[in-house]
Write a structure and sequence with these properties.
seven-stranded mixed beta sheet, D-amino Acid Aminotransferase, Chain A, domain 1, 10 helices, five-stranded antiparallel beta sheet, OB fold (Dihydrolipoamide Acetyltransferase, E2P), alpha+beta
Length: about 375
């Protein structure tokens, strides 16, 4: 733990409020699946930013934003509130004293490099950049460790989140640059893929009954994070699943007649189970749903390594259905969360772009699964 006398000397009011950040255990594919199926975990989106702890001491003048790294000069967490006065002042004015929040400083649509351009420079330059083309950086709150003088470290992850949510709705809600991380409680494994497709860095799984353990890396908190980019070859296409089984059945727009499954009813006609059945959008339009990808071994043989549906646009799905020859054997760049080097397969991959600058023969199994 930190020297709280030194903390209080340098940052008045923060004496016992500087808490070591907890480290997150990178979950394996099997761990994430098990956690998802257990019902014992919830999940939150992981932004591509940097962790920062907001601390309000005894009043609005004792407010700080501590980063994860330890300063060589002070031996304490680095303090960066002067770089983001729009966040500091908003929270300072509204939150009760003796409160500690955890969140990520991030740029919507940006990366951690964009964050460094603001948090890694002097305050004057940080403010100048935010007032210019950069725009204001955001704070994404996902936890509360101390609330109104009450230490929550020994409260469960789920209890702390409920307190965080209540605090946010009471004191912060109306702010364009300060957000609350929502939680997911169902189909967590599938939500990872959705998050990656949406451009997020990943997700964090938290055991509902788990505790916050400063400075430790407990297995009650698992990180599912994008880790790699690969180049592969399109070797085929997959047709969509016909019947729609989602939760939006009352407003679903795509139906076919029960007597003739090829008879597409006008979009928006909701006939229920009387004379029509709901079908997936891609099936309704006759589009391909996914691409099959592969790579070459040292003998020049092409091996399948996965199927990619995420990241494909509707235009691509329609075009590859009409003109498959345009895409077959084309090199594509894929972003994936996990690679199984033994089985030579991918987990949670999604399409980024085609690569006309690379020859298909240069997509090697040994390069992908090394």
């Amino acid at each position: 733990m930190f020297d709280y006398n030194k903390v209080e000397e340098l940052y008045p009011g923060a004496g016992n409020l500087m808490i070591k950040p907890m480290l997150i255990h990178k979950g394996t594919d099997s761990q994430l699946k098990t956690a998802s199926e257990s019902g014992e975990y919830f999940a939150q989106i992981k932004k591509d930013g940097s962790l920062y702890m907001f601390v309000k001491g005894n009043d609005a003048y004792q407010t700080y934003l501590f980063g994860r790294t330890v300063s060589k000069k002070t031996g304490l967490l680095t303090e960066k509130s002067a770089n983001v006065p729009h966040i500091r002042d908003r929270l300072a004015a509204t939150l009760p004293p003796q409160t500690v929040l955890l969140g990520e400083i991030y740029y919507p649509g940006g990366t951690s490099k964009n964050v460094t351009s603001i948090m890694g420079c002097l305050p004057e330059k940080a403010i100048e950049r935010q007032n210019g083309e950069y725009g204001y950086i955001h704070y994404y709150i996902y936890d509360c460790l101390v609330y109104d003088g009450v230490n929550l470290i020994n409260q469960s992850n789920l209890t702390r989140y409920k307190i965080t949510e209540a605090l946010y709705n009471k004191y912060i809600k109306e702010d364009d640059c300060i957000e609350l991380a929502k939680i997911y409680t169902e189909n967590l494994y599938e939500e990872i893929g959705k998050a990656l497709v949406a451009g997020e860095e990943g997700m964090v799984f938290k055991k509902k009954t788990g505790l916050y353990e400063p400075g430790k890396r407990p297995t009650t908190m698992l990180k599912a994070k994008q880790v790699d980019y690969i180049d592969a070859v399109i070797i085929g296409f997959k047709d969509p699943t016909p019947q729609y089984t989602g939760k939006e059945i009352t407003t679903w727009e795509y139906w076919v007649g029960t007597d003739d499954h090829e008879a597409r009813l006008p979009i928006g006609c909701h006939y229920g189970n009387l004379c029509a059945i709901p079908v997936t959008k891609h099936y309704y339009y006759g589009w391909k749903n996914a691409i099959e990808i592969g790579a070459y071994d040292d003998e020049g043989k092409l091996h399948p390594i996965g199927t990619i549906a995420s990241g494909l646009t509707d235009f691509m799905r329609e075009d590859m259905s009409i003109n498959p020859e345009k895409y077959f054997h084309k090199v594509v760049e894929i972003q994936c969360m996990m690679k199984d080097n033994k089985e030579k397969t991918l987990r949670h991959g999604f399409f980024l772009r085609t690569r006309d600058d690379k020859d298909a023969k240069d997509c090697k199994l040994k390069d992908i699964f090394s």
